Amino acid sequence: MNLYRVFPEPREMLPLDDVETQTTLEQWYRPEGERSVRLSLISSPSGRLVGPDGTSTSLSNPGDRSILLTQRRLADAVVCGAQTVRSESVPIPAHAPLVILSSSGDLRDQKVTEASFRAGGVMILTGPSPQSDPRSFFPEGVASHSEVGHSERMSAEDILGVLSDLSYHHILVEGGRSVAEAFAHNGVLDEVCMTLTGPPLSENHPPLPWWQAQWGEWSAQHVLTDDLKSLYFRYRRIS
Q1: Which of 83, 196, 224, 228 would bridge with 232, disulfide CB 3.0–4.6 Å?
Q2: What is the pLDDT of residues 9-36, one digit of tens each?
Q3: Cα 202 to the chain's mean position, in Å?
Q4: Which residues contact 121 (CB under 8 A, 6 or more apart)?
Q5: Which residues lie across from 124 on neighbouring strands?
Q6: How far is CA 180 from the centre of its chain?
Q7: What sign has the CA pseudo-torsion 198, 204, 210, 214?
Q8: Are 180 and 192 in contact (CB under 8 A)?
Q9: 0.90 exceeded by the pTM?
Q10: Within 10 Å of residue 236's Cβ, how many Cβ atoms?
């Protein structure tokens, strides 16, 4: 399978089985500046973030997975919501913590990939006085827990403040619509990377029909496609 950069020039082809491809992807997706918050999404043409099985996994393909792994390698911390880890298998990054957002702390039935467990690999952020100790849902030593903010609903600013205090400056947010909306609504996103699994169906089916105009103006940094005709966009905030 091949990836193709169609914007900007020069156009390039990247075979996924080429050892040089990962180096090129890291150059294309390297965060800009000393701090960054990147949202990564995969969507169907009608704007759904999950496939028929209720997970994003069934929307994914080798190109999407290769790009997401690149983004994970370039991140200091990877953030996702509790619903995501209940719905699908999410691996802990090899060199960064998996940060799980849970207002209640109840992470029973979590599906974090067991083979990826390592000491300190999971950080769970909750509001004050959670109903459960979220560390209890993982083997001893795998998870840490911090209470964030002053209400059950954590703000994106409070979450990023905790991560910054721990010297995590390049943050990858893996949506989840509710998590994506929370970070977009608070105006803290610098970048949005989106995989669209096929061409748009029509003008009535924009890639993200729930995206709101007041969440800023964005400019495409690059556009990729692949042999399956999926589309990969990297947008930077311009205002």
Answers
A1: 224
A2: 889 999 999 989 999 999 999 999 999 9
A3: 26
A4: 92, 97, 98, 142, 143
A5: 100, 145
A6: 9
A7: positive
A8: no
A9: yes
A10: 15
